[in-house]
Amino acid sequence: MLNPGNRSWILVAILSAVAYPLYHLIGLAALNKVIPSIGYESCVKVVGKLLKFTPDGLLSFCEDIVIGQGGVAYASCDPAREKRNKVLDYNYFDIGEYIPSGNIWQIDYAVTPPAAKMMKIVSRPQDFHPLGLAVDTKRNLIMVINLPFDSDTAAVEVFSIEDDRETLVHQRTIQHPNLYTPNALHILDNADMEGSDGTPSFFFSNDHYFQTKLLKLIENTAILPISNVMFYDARIQQASSVVNGLAFANGVSGDDSTLFVSECNKRQVHQFNMTLSPSSSPPVRLDFVQKVPVGMAVDNLEYHQGVLVIAGHPKGLDFMHYAMAKDRSLPSVPRAASQVLVWHPSRDSPSVVFSDNGHYYAASSTGTLDVSRQKLLVASLYDRGILVCDA
Predict the structure, then answer these.
(1) Which residues of the chain have pLDDT under 50?
(2) Across the beta sheet with 141-146, what order do the strands follow?
(3) In this structure, are residues 146 and 104 in contact, taking their beta carbons and an 8 Å threshold?
(4) pLDDT tens digits for 321-335?
(5) Which of 204, 209, 297, 333 registers the highest number of CB atoms within 10 A of its CB?
């Protein structure tokens, strides 16, 4: 029989186990939060050229966007996300129904009006459903997370950018047992960390520990801190964990001295100092600097010219309801609000530069800022087009 003291400790343990996820779920719900309209007046929605296989013939469902060179950005877009998302584990495609392929789009935001076109891909992967991407302007490479529908094995696809800047050539596919639920990646610039075939080393996030729908649901609902960030050493083609204990690791971005990681379910961003020692083991060391609350289910991060742009979902549970809905046009389905923050890590706190209740632009997943041109670009998991805004 338990004595009163033991019963008290058991009660405390039960209350703690309930209070921990409840605290974070209440924050994600943001029930009384009003989402103001900020920054949309200067935005242009770029929809691209007509394509017969997208739901409305236009550029849509772009999870990530990164800035390249000369006023050009690249976006990873997948029209199949309308009916299937492997991160959230829903699939509304009928058996035998045509499933469109994902694509990489080029957005020229230096022209007026901004223009978008789908890039030609030579030797395209057959089962291509891109998520996070990164561009390497020195090596003229684009690296993209691919979550194929017909396989449980995720990959990073490596493409070279041809001289016309309109064509990608598929160079290689990277797979590894530790690349199991990849979401975002950050490429190292350091040439001493390249593989023999020229592939750069990189960081990537695994957004979940579990890979099945039920266990993912438990992981998310209980806010289990069991996802991670890995480092892939291209020289030896091995991946190892460098950041552990995260509740839904998502965006990763930075440079060769700093790494930022978003923790979606705890609504915060982690900053690390990075030390590279190519001839040592391990070749990379991360030292924790700070974690910054951002008040939303934070999605992707883009660090460019000393500024970190943070995009996400200010009403996280509304976003989940919207994303999982089979028919998102129903009045009973809440709109997925959007929010983008800008942060100068060395001198201030994050500030809102774009915000919308989801009726103008829903489900923002990425923002990126061209400081020299003063242009903010915003991408969405579930809306049409890319926003190009004055910053």
Answers:
(1) 53-57
(2) 120-122, 167-174, 155-161, 141-146, 130-136
(3) no
(4) 999 999 999 999 999
(5) 204
- Residue 357 contacts by C-beta under 8 Å, 6 or more apart in sequence? 35, 37, 335, 337
What is the C-alpha radius of gyration for the chain, rounded to an integer number of angstroms?
21
Cβ 388 vs Cβ 377: under 8 Å: yes
| pLDDT recorded at residue 304 | 87
**350 CB-near residues (< 8 Å, 6+ apart):** 269, 292, 294, 308, 310, 341, 342, 343
Instruction: Give the separation between CA 156 and CA 206, rounded to whole angstroms.
Output: 12
Is 197 annotated for ligand binding?
no
Q: Could you report the per-residue pLDDT of 130-183, keeping only the tens digit for each?
A: 999 999 999 999 999 999 999 999 999 999 999 888 999 999 999 999 999 999
Strand partners, 33: none
Q: Which amino acid makes up residue 37? A: S
Q: Is 190 annotated as a binding residue?
A: yes
Q: What CA–CA distances, in Å, run from 197 to 110, 143, 162, 277?
A: 33, 14, 18, 20
**Does 140 carry a binding-site annotation?**
no
Cα–Cα dist 233/251, whole Å: 19
Least Cα distance to 103 among 51, 171, 140, 45 occurs for 51
**Run of H or E residues at 321:** helix 316-324
Cα–Cα distance, 368 to 370 (Å, whole number): 7
What pLDDT shows up at residue 3?
61
Instruction: Quickly name the fold that domain 33-390 has.
Output: Neuraminidase (2.120.10)
What distance in Å separates the CA atoms of residue 87 and residue 207, rounded to the nearest whole number? 8
Q: In this structure, are residues 148 and 129 in contact, taking their beta carbons and an 8 Å threshold?
A: yes
- Yes or no: say if 114 and 388 are a contact pair by the CB < 8 Å rule: yes
Whose tokens are 């994303």? That residue is 323
- The answer to whether the annotation marks 299 as part of a ligand binding site is yes
Q: Is 273 annotated as a binding residue?
A: no
For residue range 287-303, list pLDDT tens digits in order: 999 999 999 999 999 99
pLDDT for position 246: 99
Q: Tell me the longest C-alpha to C-alpha distance in the chain.
A: 77
Check residue 11 and give its pLDDT: 61
Beta bridge partners of 95: none
